[in-house]
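Why do we bother with holo predictions? Because pocket geometry can differ from the apo form. Keep that in mind while you read this record for coproporphyrinogen I.
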Amino acid sequence: MFCLHYFPKLKNDTFLCACHGQETNHVPVWCMRQAGRYLPEFREFRAGKDFFETCRSPAACCELTLQPLRRFPFDAAIIFSDILVIPQAMGMDVQMVAGKGPTFPEPLKEPEDLLLLQPKVDVNKELGYVFKAITLTRHKLDGKVPLIGFTGAPWTLMAYMIEGGGSTTHSKAKRWLYRHPEASHKLLKMLTDVIVEYLLGQVAAGAQALQVFESHAGCLGPVEFQEFSLPYLRDIARKVKDQLKESGQDVPMIVFAKDGHYGLEDLSQSHYEVVGLDWTIDPRSARERTGGKVSLQGNMDPCALYAPKERISEIVKKMLEGFGTRGYIANLGHGLYPDMDPENVGAFVEAVHTHSRHLNLK
Ligand SMILES: Cc1c2[nH]c(c1CCC(=O)O)Cc1[nH]c(c(CCC(=O)O)c1C)Cc1[nH]c(c(CCC(=O)O)c1C)Cc1[nH]c(c(CCC(=O)O)c1C)C2
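The structure, written out:
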């Protein structure tokens, strides 16, 4: 797949340089869920509109992606969309219920239900609206910062498709792993195939980096992770990279396995340039365990944004000292919450830029 678009020249490449472990003037920073409900302009724009309708409107996705960039000097943008557009593309109904979150009226119950899924998904037909949103946003960004595309990882999507929504135990989905391992692998493989095509489509549309969210790694133990998550995460990176290499493209990939510390060594050898970290890992030990093989992204506790600005600045300084300023992308250890103060998000971004510049001068 060749990129047929002529996009504006990139003016701030610190994020892409850090992905590749190259030196930068300052440490780049962005926040997971930076396009979200903590912004009054986001709430106003989304008011009264169905969530997935919004996802299907390229103009709306573009506007929501750009909103945080107008307020804060983030070093990357992430396209506004959701990981659950993939189950939809495979034929499942998913609704966003106010106060409850994503809901599948008819989740998968038994292995026979796999027959209800589309066996072969035409991503251009089913997810072309995401590609259009990416192309439009890349143009509208005007080269200010790179645009990140993303997907949910197979296990995380499988968990939603079986649970029918969010869950604390994921016991219905884990029941499949223990009771129906073959059917589980079949579903994970189906998801992997769609995800690879989906990510390649995002790159062809203009995405300059890709993040894979394994948000539900934490409910797996090391053994289940090795069998049901890691092989698919590796497959995705290898297949996407092989295809991109053929067309001479180099797009860094980030893997974020939330609460998956037990897999850190393996994740650092899974063909991803960057490993994302939640806040439960100490920066220095993450560096040691990944042995300088990858760049790292994260990992301030999102709740630290409830602290006064001076305290945020101290926490950021410590975090930067722990990770070092090279091969590092500052972020939170998970997404921003709706009740967070945009001013403190601004203080976080500023602290990263200021402290990292000072550390680089030392
Ligand atoms: C802003 C938003 C999104 N999704 C949801 C919301 C809130 C609902 C609203 O605005 O009405 C519902 C929405 N979508 C989802 C949830 C979580 C539900 C649950 O498990 O309880 C909610 C509330 C599912 C989802 N969706 C996503 C993940 C992976 C990241 C993570 O671990 O949080 C997951 C798990 C990815 C996602 N989702 C979104 C982005 C946009 C880009 C950005 O980060 O700014 C991204 C990257 C956008």
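The chain has one domain: 14-361.
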